[in-house]
Amino acid sequence: MSSGDAEKARDKTTQTTTDVDPANALESRPSVSSSSSNSKLQKRNKSLTKSPSVLERATSMFKKEQEKPISRVFSISSDRETNAPLKFKSNSISTSKYNVVTFLPKGLYEQFRRVANLYFLSVATISCFESISPIKPYTMWVPLTFIITLSMTKEAVEDYKRHKQDNEQNRTPIERFNGECMENKEWRDLVCGDVVRVVRDAFFPCDLIMIGSSNEERTCYVETKNLDGETNLKLKRSVDMGDGVKVISNAKLANLCRNSQRDDVMANAEDHLSGNLCTVECEHPNNSLYTFSGNLELKPPFVSEKKKIAVTPTNVLLRGSQLRNTEYVYGIVIYTGHDSKVMMNASETPSKRSHVEKQMDYVVLGMLILLLSMSTISAIYCSWWVKNESPKHWYLDTANSDEPFDVNKTDIVGVFAFFTSYVLYGYLIPISLYVSLEFVKVFQAMVLLNRDRKMYHEETDTPMSARTSNLNEELGMVHTVLSDKTGTLTCNAMEFFKLSVNGVSYGEGITEIEHALIKRQGGNPPARSSKAIEPSFNFIDSRLTDGQWRTSPDREQLRSFFRILAVCQTVIPEGERTPEQVVYQAESPDELAFVVAAKRFGFFFNNRTSTTVEVLEQSVNKSEKDSVRTYEVLNLLEFNSTRKRMSVVVRSKDDNKIILMTKGADSVIYERLAVGNKGGNAAKESTQQHIDDYAACGLRTLCLAQREISSSEYEAWNKKFIKASQAMKKRDEELDAVAELIEKDLELVGATAIEDKLQMGVPRCIEQLMRAGIAVWVLTGDKQDTAINIGSACSLITPQMSLKVINVEELVKLESEGEISKEEMKTQGLEAVSKQIDDGLEIAKQCAEVDAEMGLVIDGRSLSFALSAELKDNFLKLGTSCAAVICCRVSPLQKALVTKLVKDSGKITLAIGDGANDVGMIQAAHIGVGISGQEGMQAVMASDFAFAQFRFLERLLLLHGRYSYKRIARMVCYFFYKNLAFGLTIFIYNLHAAASGQVIYNDWLMSSFNIFFVCYPVIILGLFDQDVRPDSSLKHPELYSETQWNKNFNKKSQAVWALNAIWVAIVTYWSIMKAVHSGEADHEDGHVFGLWEVGTTMYTSLVFTLNLQIGLFINYWTWIHHLTIWGSFALWWILNVVLSHTDVYYSTYSYKIFTESTVLTPKYWLGFWAVTFLCLLPYIIASSLKRLFKPSLYELVQNEESLERGACKQCLGVTTEVDGGAGGQKFKKRATSSKSHDDSMTSNDSYSDVSVVGTTTPRRQGTLRKNISIPGSATSQRTTPLGSMEILPDVSAFPQPGTPTRLPPRTPPKQ
């Protein structure tokens, strides 16, 4: 780009990115002494300040939108005013949600976005009008203010912490070049174009282009764990500014910034406008952490002649990362503040809401509709009564009443009655539901989940992490688990295991997959070593080890093979540079395995600079000494999921040959091999057979290839490469296209095979999930044979399973050979996949008829057809009919598309993965789970829940998910039940009082209903209830089906609770009004029960009924349950006593009512107990009959548990063996046995044995017995102290090794 072009680009950028007139910016500066400079600037200002018309301005604005530049251009300068017209964002950040001005309005807006809060605000507002409201305003405003204040206080505390953190970051000191030397500034003072120096262990203040460091190689090490969670150090390089700029000094920086000898600001502005300053051209700010396109244009006197240098991601230092093992670096500021990549990634993850929460919104809406309907009925009835009945009651004198009861204005009477009822019936909506639910969910996530020691991974010191509390109950409703393989089911700790060179396979021993398959088939596999020879290396073959490869007839090919392993990589060596003590920092475990293997074979990679790689190579002849060979890295063609290969172009300094070295998937390497059988290509068929054999053993394979390039060919290609590397638009596509030009006519060198072992406990976990009725889909990039064998080894596929394989291998082969075109491939492929899916549906139908399981395997090419609009419905139908699905050779995009397809079917999906390629899948699913493994923390950062091992998924779903769903579903049902029962008594009495708005309860007592009297027991239910023991949840995974199909919060369940509430309201009202309130004198002074005594008795009955109701379906009694239930009764009486002795102005109708009248009357004490019993009687009868004649699964397990403990002890409420004492020894013994079983699973044999299941029956079996005698409903409750919750390590140990694994045949769940 010429200087004129650069000036045009800068002018264009200025005009399109700012609203500031450059002329105005220049006019505010001092004038320049030089007349030529003045005349030039005056001409420019004159042209810029020309006044445009309105039409011209509109046209200009439209053009600016249409002609937005593809890049941003700014100057490198120590003068802050140089780039000021560009209006880039400052480096000060703010992550807070509120400030002093916006907190109140924005906070209130957030609170009243909830429908329930908005409703209560309207009620509180209406209560201010005494002519309408039947209650005192403060009795509505106090509880509403309390709830809103509580929520906003929480918001304020959290936001204050954010403000504090932001202020600390913005005031962090940094060294900035001021034109002469480095000076101390704060982060917030930095602007684009500044040059800064960052010292060791400091964080980078913004995004920088690295231009120098303390190392001679001009490199540095960076830790990026704050960005992507990866703890391994990454090597960053300075931009290559030429041999003339090796050391950065103040003088050099002064020339770079052009400010040391020219202090006149206007002169500097002239340089900026005329294009004499060094500039940076880069892409606009974006959130991609791993890509960057930019150019650095250097000009004299900083360099001898003008040059443009491409800036790559390896030259960029990102804000949030930390400088390590390097004394200091210099960098040019490119993105500041909220434009930096880490801040662009700081947007909140899209909010996910659980199925129960969505249903709850509909219930709230239904309650609002009911409330409006009741208010309308009351309004109509009141209007009719005032018009037709009130004249009969002469003492009311309605003829002379005001508007609320004016007999001549019945329409106005109806309106008043409507709003009066609207306020009065507000207790149908539980005001404390959302606050209580949020508290319960946070407790479940932060305490019960995060502190579960059984999901703590000691080896990596990784606890369970619930990153959101919104989806706790969703964990209990999962139908489909979609899982990655590498790093999720496997350890992602690669071990070099086998290799093939020149048609000869090397490497002894069997893999873990082979070992498991032989045992499953009843064979006796040979013993295999549980430890690698060296981390990442487990290769055994005397033909190659200890230098014996030099005696092979293929030693030249073997040397090329080992050389590619040592050179074609991006690993960083650290520590002592000896084979025994060197430490390699690799971006992937595969590369680490290759470099370690090369070292073991005698090709020791010991040093790397910015442009060279040094390898200590073993000589071919044993008599010769080992030699150090240096390879100049000319170009690096990086690996990505599209290319599926990596290449380096190197020049050997020994013979000056230029060699292209490539490694990648066999499918892409074989496409680029030279025609004919020259060199290693003669063995390509036998090598392909070895690759297939390795894949069948569950090994990961790669091909190695190379070719020598002439100098002329390289020079011509390198010009294209440089042009592509400097492209500002679609740089990655340009580089891929250029790479295709040189990655051709390759010579096959060999193939590698790496073993990635299964994680401990994976077979058991998958077996348990499938017994629970959860379908498991594995989405992997492996070959078909590899995926099938791994599926068999981890219990996903069983020998008895009908397996349908869908692929289009024949068509792919015909296409690669050129026999069919791409269009024909598309048509024929669609037809072939459609036919195979139809065949699969027939098989699925047959399997359903005989109650057998079916599995499906589909490759990536076939999957692309199956996901098309024509076939996706049938494919989904087939997939959801299968117990197991394996999708192999899939891309990250296909993973997300498959997940979205299953999610759109309405079934709750859970996606689990460990790498960046799993992020799309994790975010697409209802629930995302991240594995913190070897591939960084991208998956964890995008997930809802995270832990270290796949086996923890069993506990997360079958225990915590099931518990959370049952607790929250029962809690929400109870909230609506109690409010409906309470609200209906008010409604019935209001109709009894001609819908006049007369209340039967005290205002304060009504306001306290949701906050004090019936709130705490239900919260404790949501926190601690357990219908069965934790170990029983894992022992009987079929229990999960009850929560999976939403049986506790479906329409039937909601209707049953609504009918129960109606029964309670009717029985309470009529029993109290007709039986207790008889009208005769109640004691010797002649006092009778009045309105408020009757209301107090009715309220007491409701408090006892509702609290004892929750006691009836509590399964797990602790001292906290007793405290809250009996404490609620005590609190009711205490508050009545207080109101009875409080001034009448504040206590209103309760003054002297309770202590002076109600408690002195015997029928009060006899009445509410009788009414309570009558209200609870239907529930007691129905639940007992159901338990006797049609028990649910969890009731069967409760009976089994009661038999194990002894029914007599359970009925008497004696504590179980988990409490200690004599029984405690028994529990400890069992826990110890379970622990030893856990420990035994660490060996390969132990957890491989777990996969040997289901060899005699078509479906997975368990231990649940349905012919257990039912001791009675009392045995459904367990009395256990609070300390024995599932957060303790001993409660839910794995079943003992001798535990049988049979259960009744698992039938397909009902849709």
From TrEMBL:
Ranges of residues in domain P-type ATPase C-terminal: 940-1192
Keyword entries, A-Z: ATP-binding, Magnesium, Membrane, Metal-binding, Nucleotide-binding, Translocase, Transmembrane, Transmembrane helix
GO terms (BP aspect): phospholipid translocation
Annotated TM spans: 362-386, 412-437, 972-992, 1004-1024, 1055-1076, 1096-1116, 1123-1144, 1164-1182
Segments for region (Disordered): 1-52, 1222-1311
Pfam annotation, one family: Cation_ATPase
InterPro entries given in the database record: ATPase_P-typ_cyto_dom_N (IPR023299), ATPase_P-typ_P_site (IPR018303), ATPase_P-typ_TM_dom_sf (IPR023298), ATPase_P-typ_transduc_dom_A_sf (IPR008250), HAD-like_sf (IPR036412), HAD_sf (IPR023214), P-type_ATPase_IV (IPR006539), P-type_ATPase_N (IPR032631)
Comp. bias (Basic and acidic residues): 1-13
Reaction it catalyzes: ATP + H2O + phospholipidSide 1 = ADP + phosphate + phospholipidSide 2
One of the record's GO cellular component terms: plasma membrane
Entry EC number(s): 7.6.2.1
Domain P-type ATPase N-terminal: 79-141
Biased composition (Low complexity): 28-40
Residues annotated for Mg(2+) binding in this entry: 484, 486, 914, 918
Taxonomy, superkingdom: Eukaryota
Entry GO MF terms: ATP binding; ATP hydrolysis activity; ATPase-coupled intramembrane lipid transporter activity; magnesium ion binding
Active-site feature positions: 484
Catalytic class of the enzyme: translocase
Cellular compartment(s): Membrane
Membrane topology: Multi-pass membrane protein
Sites where the protein binds ATP: 484-486, 591, 639, 663, 700, 780-782, 889, 895, 917-918
Cofactor list: Mg(2+)
Compositional bias segments (type: Polar residues): 1241-1282
Feature: compositional bias, Pro residues: 1302-1311
Similarity comment text for this entry: Belongs to the cation transport ATPase (P-type) (TC 3.A.3) family. Type IV subfamily.
Name by which UniProt lists this protein: Phospholipid-transporting ATPase
